Amino acid sequence: MNDNNSKATQIPVWDGKEESWPLWNIKFQSLAIYHDCEDVLDEDVMKDCPKKSELKGLDPGIPKEKAAASLYKANSRLAAIFTLSQQTAHGLGFLEQTKCDEFPSGIVYRALELMKDRYAPNDLGSEILLESEMESIPFRNASDYYDSIIAVCNKYGAKWTSTDHLKQMLKKTQNQQFIKIIMDHLKSSQNDNFEFVCKEISEIQKLSNIGKKKVNGTSDAKNGKEVVLANTEVAACKTCGKRHKGVCNKLKSTSTDKSGDKSGKKCSGCGKEGILEADCWKCHPDKAPAWFEKKGTKNGVTATNVEITLASLEQQDFA
Predict the structure, then answer these.
(1) Confidence (pLDDT) at 265
(2) I want to staple 102 with a disulfide (CB 3.0 to 4.6 A). Which of 51, 65, 122, 261 is the partner?
(3) Which one of 127-136, 182-191, 240-249, 258-267 scores highest in mean pLDDT?
(4) Is the separation of the CB atoms in 24 and 97 below 8 Å?
(5) DSSP state of 243
(6) Is 118 buried (19+), middle (13-18) or exposed (0-12) by CB count in 10 A?
(7) Does residue 33 lie within any of the structural domains?
(8) Are both 131 and 72 inside the same structural domain?
(9) Rounded distance between C-alpha atoms, residue 153 and residue 148, angstroms
(10) Which of 176, 193, 212 is the last residue of a domain?
(11) Which of 101-110, 148-157, 190-199 tops mean pLDDT?
(12) Domain of 105?
């Protein structure tokens, strides 16, 4: 048997807890269908099931008697699956109550009826409990709400329609957009689908939550309104004439090696040999010494006007 078939026939296990029984019951009945044993769960069909003492007298050549023998064997096979699916002695106790000499393996459909009477009673008391649990489920997240509602329905075996669920949901929301969606589906019989409505609202809630979390130019977390941040005005660079942030690429020194040798190198700012761009007074007037500023002032040129000052000093030798 390959891995896919092994996974498909995996036996669902019940842990003996009340809240997990509805889901286990659904899976077990589905497994009975998979193993071609669904007739064993039908009380009317099981009326024709022979007893153990009658098996030897059945003629396999007669179709009806052959079918009866097969029904007995199917019940025994499903009883074995039922036993393997129980994690506690509590679960096994339901099947034990149906065992007798004529049915030593037990009668599976009766065991399930006992379980249903215990965990999904169909009486006025269970209806009150169902209504109470339905009312207590909060409507915050549509996806979680759907899962909780279905879990309660499975627990009590409730057969609520999509219309019933939508009306219940309508009582719990005050969001006008959600109310409109629910009302539109209630008015349209073709779109009266509880699961679809929950998915639609859930998608809206996800988008809304994303919008509330975004800040700094995308959306405001408090009111959800779009916010556009003003761009900071950047002055033109005095070296390259362009508007940019940070150190100008033109000023980044690429004219020296790891040893720091300056010989044979020319500064791209002033054009002189032996000067690095990072040390050039023309590129960096703030690095010029005090006497440099005095000379510039003495010649009638202010030190703050970099281009004019350096132009007047380029004719002098500062070696």
Answers:
(1) 65
(2) 51
(3) 127-136
(4) no
(5) B
(6) exposed
(7) yes
(8) no
(9) 9
(10) 212
(11) 101-110
(12) 3-119
